């Protein structure tokens, strides 16, 4: 069955991670994504270091690749010609670069008023920091995220994934889809943009709202939940688990399950506010009990009592878990030289579309599909040869 975005053509100018994350949402669901890079003669390089690396392939699967020298007049003209026939342009240059190249939203809108032009940057398109370069870890620090991550007293800690990059990419992808829906109703294109900083401030969620509503500045809580108890990491005889038994109903059920029903009647723990106030004492009491149980025993007991509980895996254990294997979170992308590459699939499930066993294609080599794509856009073999001779492709 034709995928839901199959009718849309996307020109992908993105590098790094935030932009490609947005484009990946579109390519995974059928969009005709054309990855545009500079020719090797113009200094092209993949920021992931290796086109066959897990990082590069996971970001750029399901795309075709073309090279265009946007710094040349012929290359710019070629891009604008393609943009006049496209639905979406996605870029994550620093703010001034797209204007210097003459491929900014206003320039593209002149040739295609219906274009959805999408931008992601470190700090936004306006403001005191708009010209700054931005990377994930810098924004993790500036958003406040690192100040609430890690163990108290051990200083700020980065999250173990590029969370501001991937969050900004996901939000930009959502914005593109909303802009396409708006265009379906009105015929109007528009400029959609977000930034790593805006996205991370939004992702702070209730931790951010604690400050904006009440002036409360959250701090590091380590592995314990900042506003619920008991909820956090507990030791077992053979490892550790995450356990949540913070509501009154769950706490009573859990204390009965571990044969400590008196804890629910203890004045120190009788109500949610008391369990928060005395959470360190409560953690010690519960941890003494859980430390005598195996991880498997505790996970079964807690979940049977209606309390979420799960083991703490490494990455390999997570992907080999029986439930994850049932979910089929990996899909193969066939590469002509490297064979089948197992990558992480989109987490979105739609009842009208089956989850296939493979991606449409692996990430492209530099300019792999240049001639093929230009032919589809109406360029003749002579036109293509002329562009190549001029250094435009």
Task: Describe it.
This protein has 393 residues and is an alpha/beta fold. It folds into 2 domains: 9-203 and 363-389, Rossmann fold, CATH 3.40.50; 231-312, 2-Layer Sandwich (formyl-coa transferase, domain 3), CATH 3.30.1540. The protein has 18 helices and 11 strands. The strands form 3 sheets. A 6-stranded parallel beta sheet has the order 3-2-1-4-5-6, with helices on both faces. The protein has a 3-stranded antiparallel beta sheet with strand order 7-8-9. The longest helix has 24 residues, at 163-186. The mean pLDDT is 96.
What is the fold's blueprint, element by element?
Elements: E1 9-12, H1 18-28, E2 32-37, H2 54-60, E3 64-67, H3 73-83, E4 88-91, H4 95-101, H5 105-111, E5 116-121, H6 136-142, H7 163-186, E6 190-195, H8 196-203, H9 206-214, E7 231-236, E8 239-244, H10 248-257, H11 262-265, H12 272-277, H13 279-290, H14 295-304, E9 309-311, H15 315-320, H16 322-327, E10 330-335, E11 339-344, H17 370-376, H18 381-389
Parallel strand pairs: 1-2, 1-4, 2-3, 4-5, 5-6
Antiparallel strand pairs: 7-8, 8-9, 10-11
Helix pairs in contact: 1-7, 7-8
Shape: elongated
**CATH homology superfamily of the largest domain:** Crotonobetainyl-coa:carnitine coa-transferase, domain 1
* Cα distance spanning the termini: 34 Å
**Individual helix count:** 18
Strand order of the largest sheet: 3-2-1-4-5-6
Provide the succession of SSEs.
EHEHEHEHHEHHEHHEEHHHHHEHHEEHH
Main pleated-sheet profile = 6 strands, parallel
Structurally, the number of domains stands at 2
CATH top-level class of the largest domain: Alpha Beta
Radius of gyration: 25 Å
Into which percent range does the helicity of residues fall?
Answer: 40-55%
Low-confidence regions: none
Strands, total number:
11
What is the CATH topology classification name of the largest domain? Rossmann fold
Category from helices, strands and their pairing: alpha/beta
Q: What is the CATH architecture term of the largest domain?
A: 3-Layer(aba) Sandwich
If you average the pLDDT, what whole number results? 96
Query: What percentage of the residues does DSSP assign to strands (E)?
Result: 5-15%
């Amino acid at each position: 069955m034709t995928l839901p975005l199959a009718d849309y053509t996307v020109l992908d100018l993105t590098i790094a991670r935030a932009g490609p994350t947005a484009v990946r949402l579109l390519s995974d669901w059928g969009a005709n994504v054309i990855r545009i890079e500079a020719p090797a003669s113009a200094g092209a390089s993949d920021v992931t270091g290796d086109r066959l690396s897990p990082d590069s392939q996971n970001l750029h699967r399901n795309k075709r690749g073309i090279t265009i020298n946007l710094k040349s007049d012929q290359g710019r003209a070629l891009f604008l010609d393609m943009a006049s026939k496209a639905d979406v342009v996605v870029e994550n240059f620093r703010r001034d670069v797209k204007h210097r190249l003459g491929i900014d939203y206003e320039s593209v809108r002149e040739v295609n008023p219906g274009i959805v032009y999408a931008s992601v940057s470190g700090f936004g398109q306006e403001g005191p920091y708009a010209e700054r370069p931005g990377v994930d870890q810098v924004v993790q620090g500036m958003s406040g995220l690192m100040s609430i991550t890690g163990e108290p007293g051990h200083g700020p800690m980065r999250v173990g994934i590029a969370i501001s990059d991937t969050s900004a990419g996901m939000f930009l992808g959502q914005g593109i889809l909303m802009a396409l829906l708006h265009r379906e109703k009105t015929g109007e294109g528009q400029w959609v943009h977000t930034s790593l900083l805006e996205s991370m401030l939004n992702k702070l969620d209730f931790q951010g709202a604690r400050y904006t509503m009440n002036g409360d500045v959250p701090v590091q809580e380590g592995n314990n939940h900042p506003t619920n108890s008991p909820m956090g990491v507990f030791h077992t005889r053979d490892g550790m688990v995450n356990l949540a038994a913070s509501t009154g109903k769950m706490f009573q059920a859990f204390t009965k399950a571990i044969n400590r029903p008196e804890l629910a009647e203890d004045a120190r723990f009788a109500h949610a506010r008391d369990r928060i106030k005395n959470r360190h004492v409560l953690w010690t009491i519960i941890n003494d009990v859980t430390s005598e149980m195996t991880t498997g025993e505790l996970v079964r007991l807690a979940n049977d009592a209606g309390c979420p509980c799960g083991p703490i895996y490494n990455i390999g254990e997570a992907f080999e878990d029986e439930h994850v294997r049932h979910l089929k979170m990996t899909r193969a992308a066939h590469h002509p030289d490297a064979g089948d590459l197992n990558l992480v699939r989109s987490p979105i499930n739609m009842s009208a579309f089956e989850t296939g066993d493979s991606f449409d294609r692996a990430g492209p080599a530099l300019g792999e599909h240049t001639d093929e794509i230009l032919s589809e856009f109406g360029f003749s073999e002579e036109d293509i040869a002329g562009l190549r001779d001029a250094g435009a492709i």
